[in-house]
């Protein structure tokens, strides 16, 4: 549970290597965050690393189920967490 205006951080922790790709979804729709080091006016969703998604200044529109999908040449793993406002 996050208060409106606060930040939320999602960690997609996996073991094994190599990691070929990490894909993030919110409410079953692709999230296209800005990569660390890049800036965009008004962008509140950033990748702090390939496996860490950060949302600053959380609003009602950010609520929902977040999922990460991690792939390599052998398998795919996924995790999920719900962002709720307090």
Automatic annotation (TrEMBL):
Record-linked Pfam families: Ig_3
InterPro entries: Ig-like_dom, Ig-like_dom_sf, Ig-like_fold, Ig_sub, Ig_sub2, Neural/epithelial_adhesion
Domain Ig-like: 1-84
Alphabetically ordered keywords of this record: Disulfide bond, Immunoglobulin domain, Repeat, Signal
One of the record's GO cellular component terms: neuron projection
Domain of life: Eukaryota
Name the UniProt record assigns to this protein: Ig-like domain-containing protein
């Amino acid at each position: 549970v996050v208060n409106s205006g606060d930040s939320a951080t999602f960690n997609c922790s996996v073991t094994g290597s190599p990691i070929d790709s990490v894909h993030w979804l919110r409410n079953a729709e692709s999230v296209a965050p800005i990569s660390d080091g890049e800036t965009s006016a008004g962008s509140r969703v950033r990748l702090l690393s390939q496996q860490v998604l950060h949302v600053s200044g959380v609003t009602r529109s950010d609520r929902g189920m977040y999922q990460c999908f991690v792939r390599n040449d052998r398998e795919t793993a996924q995790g999920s967490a719900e962002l709720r406002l307090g």
